[in-house]
Amino acid sequence: MLDYLKRFIIAIIMAICVGMLIVGGRMAHAETVSGTEDWMFPAEGIISDVYGSRGGTHKAVDIAARTGTPVFSVDDGVVSKSYISDTYGKVVFVQHTSGFETVYAHLHEIKVTQGDSIKKGQQVGSIGNTGKSTGAHLHFEVHRGDWTYEKENAINPFTIFGQAHKGDYVIASHDPFRTVETATHSKYHVQNGDTLWRIASKFSISVDQLKSRNHLHTNDIYPDQILIIPFS
Prior knowledge:
Helix content: 10-25%
Number of helices: 5
Strand content: 25-35%
Order of helices and strands: HEHEEEEEEEEEHEEEHHE
Largest sheet: 12 strands, antiparallel
Shape: globular
Number of strands: 14
């Protein structure tokens, strides 16, 4: 009888522990960062690099798209900086009322000036290839507090928007947890200076995959050519 009671108690404890794990998992999956619940994703394109890459030094998410693709503010705020940097190129910083600061870098064109009060979804610029950049993309940073040179306040943007991976297609959405969409391929507009090797590396595919999907028999490509990027 005593042995039966011990087994019964152990079974109850195990059931409680499993239940806590399940609930905890659901909570972790649904958790949002306070003050960012209504944010929208800043641009449409393909994730070409993720937070924490390059040995942990990349404190941003990169979204590759055609030059001129609109870039939007994720939320209401005030433009704290708007200038041309040697590294960021044309860049916009926005201070949000929630205490966060977001950064939109390598822009082709800037649509706002320092001191402007802007709304969520307002265009702040367009995707470009300025500064230290190897192709047209948006370098997007989120800081919990002010931006600093050391970027100690930087957080992973996909902590807010839901998990995504290199090669995923994303849209500028007002529902942050439905930003990431699944697709089998996307389109890429070739930029000046692009090579098949550079494009393949950007999207973590091989040159052979890229050539096969686009029926290319040589390595020759030209600016504004549209290539299909297969998702592996």
